[in-house]
Design goal:
By secondary structure, the protein is α+β, with helices and mostly antiparallel strands. The protein is built from 17 helices and 16 strands. The strands form 3 sheets. It has an 8-stranded mixed beta sheet with strand order 1-5-6-11-10-9-7-8. It has a 5-stranded mixed beta sheet with strand order 13-12-14-15-16, with helices on both faces. Strand 12, helix 14 and strand 13 form a beta-alpha-beta unit. Helix 1 packs antiparallel against helix 5.
């Protein structure tokens, strides 16, 4: 019979890979908590309208990438392609953002029907951050400082760079759109076909066209920065000077527009082209001051970002910065020679009780000493704890070092507990 396979672009996360994921997730969420951000969880499925109304009808995501179904009631529902829309919906529905500041994060799978390739999947994972109720450039700076600190604690600061832009208000963008479309229409034939199509639907997206000829043409085009109102301009200048005084380096990229309709004013991307190639953005976000109102809430300032976990994992691997300790999933493997299964299980429980933090696996399934020692070695554990006839008779335990040249020791239970605790505390196996 033909075996059933996973859906293309939707990967399994295997046990050998999960320690790195856990390390990354714990590093990120630990850092977010240190800045006073709190977790929110919301469903993977939402009504299709939520995404259409927030992300925008003529964006790539809504036009081509959503997993949309009719459920058994005949309602149109969609697997979330990103988190911001669901987060705003959840906050509104639960009255979290009426005259209140909220600093929130979430983590989980997102779904987009894209062509799978390096750094691009159909089920991928994001950590997202959304802040509601703050208007000033200080909060924009805070989330950028927070991400910069994350790169530092992951050891990838010199692998990423920051690009920034301001999109101004919706009114600024409308005026700019008219000017840009007007200018591009006169040069229609020089545009690539993708950009020609976008001229009517989503002309600002032409700015980040990958076509070299379009890019050359755009060098002469009207610039968005010339259409910014004084307040947006000031907001952006203040953000830049906050980043300057904090020593965060960035490049202003006037062509950075982001693909979602809800952004306005600040937008940014952290890129890592050397490690990631074409799918180089690891973290992207900006302000979306109009979205809450657009979804039926009161006008509420908002800013946020999302990072792609798979891309971050690629980056950590390429940079070789995952600490060795992350891969070590076991400290000790308990081998029981002879008919001591019950003893061994009990000893395991006692050790877990007395040695907090010890990662210990009991051997199960019987077998001789050599076979069990082979398993101990294969398990990756640093120690084999051996329980045989002599040990049981003496209330003792033999500790064998599997990863370093040190004679094995047979110790009484209490002495073994002291030694194991020392090893666990110092991580020196
Ligand atoms: P891209 O430029 O790769 O298409 P995007 O602009 O569509 O990204 P966002 O919607 O802003 O991306 O999502 C934020 C982050 O989520 C991206 O920077 C990236 O790290 C990650 N991401 C987005 N789409 C995918 C995907 N299909 N597979 C893996 N990661 C993704
Ligand atoms: Mg995309």
């Amino acid at each position: 019979m033909k075996k059933i396979q996973s859906i293309r672009g939707m990967n399994d996360l295997l046990p050998d890979q999960s320690p790195v994921w856990q390390y990354l997730e714990q590093t990120i969420t630990g850092l977010l908590q240190r800045y006073g951000y709190r977790e929110i969880r919301f469903p993977v499925l939402e009504t299709t309208d939520l995404f259409k109304r927030s992300i925008g009808e003529v964006t790539d995501i809504v036009e081509k990438e959503m997993y949309t179904f009719t459920d058994r009631n005949g309602d149109s529902i969609t697997l979330r392609p990103e988190g911001t829309a669901g987060c705003v919906r959840a906050c509104e529905q639960n009255s979290l953002i009426r005259d209140q500041v909220q600093r929130l994060w979430y983590m989980g799978p997102m779904f987009r029907h894209e062509r799978p390739q390096k750094g691009r999947l159909r089920q991928f994972h994001q950590v997202g951050v959304e802040v509601f109720g703050l208007d000033g450039p200080d909060i924009d700076a805070e989330i950028l400082l927070m991400t910069a600190r994350l790169w530092q604690s992951l050891g990838v600061s010199d692998q990423v760079r920051l690009e920034l832009n301001s999109l101004g208000t919706a009114e600024n963008r409308n005026r700019y759109r008219l000017a840009l479309v007007d200018w591009l229409r006169q040069r229609f034939d020089a545009l690539d076909t993708d950009s020609q199509r976008r001229l009517d639907s989503n002309p600002l997206r032409i700015l980040d066209s990958k076509h070299p000829e379009t890019q050359t043409l755009l060098a002469e085009a009207p610039r968005l920065s010339e259409f910014l109102d004084p307040e947006s301009r000031l907001h952006f200048q203040q953000l830049c000077s906050l980043l300057d005084s904090a020593g965060v380096q960035y490049r202003i990229n006037e062509r950075l527009v982001r693909g979602l309709d809800y952004y306005g004013r600040t937008v940014f991307e952290w890129l890592s082209p050397d490690a990631l190639g074409a799918q180089s953005t690891v973290c992207a976000g900006g302000r979306y001051d109009g979205l809450v109102e657009q979804l039926g809430g009161r006008p509420t300032r908002a800013v946020g970002f999302a990072m792609g976990i798979e891309r971050l994992i690629l980056l950590l691997d390429a940079a070789g910065v995952v600490p060795d300790s992350v891969a070590r999933q076991l400290d000790a493997y308990l081998v029981a020679v002879g008919d001591f299964t019950a003893h061994a299980l009990l000893l395991g429980e006692q050790l877990r009780h007395r040695c907090p933090g010890l990662k210990l696996q009991n051997h199960c399934g019987g077998g001789g000493f050599r076979a069990q020692m082979k398993k101990a070695d294969k398990s990756g554990a640093s120690l084999a704890l051996i329980l045989g006839e002599d040990e049981v008779a003496a209330g003792a335990l033999t500790i064998k070092f599997l990863r370093r040249d040190q004679p094995q020791q047979t110790l009484g239970f209490e002495a073994a507990v002291v030694l194991i605790n020392q090893l666990v505390r110092s991580s020196q196996f």
